[in-house]
Design goal:
mainly alpha, 76% helix
Length: 176
């Protein structure tokens, strides 16, 4: 409440003085235009601008000068600035690049899991159902079925991935 009373007292002092005698300084007007003043100071300047034509014209001129300067410097204001390495920001950008691919990655994971299960099931069935005659040495290493059946097990995943890439490419061409 005390601060409000001081504000009213200062405002009354400004109203009682002749506006032609006292003007707000250039630096204070510039700070007012660029909203760099505290609330109390900004209120006092605003109260003065209501009464003083000269200061309000100067504020209008400062605003138009600032807008003109901003328009002329606009191409240079958005220049890239060298930034420090920020791991969180890089991970966030990476994640945002992955987000459109999430359905594909989920499908790829499901296909890969199914492929692994089918591979091992096929290997197990080969060993259980087809028993070599007694005394016959094992002719192939453990990874041979992977080489033999792997491409066929991963083919649906590859076809789905290629279809998704083509779909995204067509949508991007239509939008641009």
């Amino acid at each position: 409440m005390e601060a409000f009373e001081r504000f009213l007292q200062r405002a009354r002092q400004l109203q009682e003085t002749d506006p032609s005698e006292h003007h707000v300084s250039e630096s204070l007007l510039t700070a007012y235009v660029y909203e760099q003043l505290l609330d109390e100071q900004a209120s006092l300047v605003a109260a003065h601008l209501v009464q003083c034509v000269r200061c309000s014209e100067r504020v209008t001129a400062l605003r138009s000068e600032g807008a003109r300067l901003e328009r002329s410097l606009a191409p240079y204001l958005h220049m890239p600035v060298a930034r420090k390495f920020n791991l969180r920001e890089r991970l966030q950008r990476w994640w945002e690049s992955v987000v459109p691919w999430q359905p594909v990655l989920v499908h790829a994971g499901v296909y890969a899991a199914v492929a692994v299960v089918l591979f091992w099931a096929n290997s197990w069935l080969d060993k259980v159902l087809i028993t070599p005659p007694a005394g016959t040495p094992v002719l192939e290493p453990w990874w041979a079925p992977l080489v033999r059946y792997g491409p066929w097990l991963l083919a649906p995943w590859a076809v789905g991935l290629i279809a998704h890439v083509i779909y995204r490419w067509r949508n991007n061409r239509r939008q641009s």
